[in-house]
Automatic annotation (TrEMBL):
GO terms for cellular component: cytoplasm. PANTHER family: HISTIDINE BIOSYNTHESIS BIFUNCTIONAL PROTEIN, HISTIDINE BIOSYNTHESIS BIFUNCTIONAL PROTEIN HISIE. It comes from the Bacteria. The keyword Membrane does not apply. Keywords: Amino-acid biosynthesis, ATP-binding, Cytoplasm, Histidine biosynthesis, Hydrolase, Nucleotide-binding. It is an enzyme of class 3 (hydrolase). Its EC number is 3.6.1.31. This is Phosphoribosyl-ATP pyrophosphatase. Its main location: cytoplasm. It is found in: Cytoplasm. Belongs to the PRA-PH family. GO terms for molecular function: ATP binding; phosphoribosyl-ATP diphosphatase activity. The gene is hisE. It comes from Parvularcula maris.
């Protein structure tokens, strides 16, 4: 497994384990207790911050913001009862399919 795969496995396990923790002591538990809409909003905010860091060419900031994006994506997936493994399965399904073809197949 790649280093990113290992890191994401650890991250998603921690997020899942913290679902029932005290929201006063766990940021993850707090986000999950606030619902899908709050988790989605945080992912959007972090995505914009990562995009800005990338546009500025700030490598260190882009790396930090990318970590935030992955964390908040994993929280949103957990809030929706799914996981990065489901995303990986979708990526596997798309392997070998042109992006243009794949996007066109979703229009119907």
């Amino acid at each position: 497994m790649s280093r990113i795969g290992e890191a994401l496995d650890v991250l998603t396990a921690r997020i899942h384990a913290r679902r029932g923790d005290d929201p006063e002591t766990s940021y993850t538990a707090k986000l999950l207790s606030q619902g899908r809409e709050k988790a989605a909003k945080k992912l959007g905010e972090e995505g914009v911050e990562a995009a800005i860091a990338g546009a500025k060419g700030d490598r260190a900031e882009l790396i930090a913001e990318s970590a935030d994006v992955l964390y908040h994506l994993a929280v949103l997936l957990e809030a929706n009862g799914t996981s990065l493994n489901a995303v990986a399965a979708e990526l596997d399904r798309r392997a070998g399919v042109s992006g243009i073809e794949e996007k066109a197949s979703r229009k119907s």
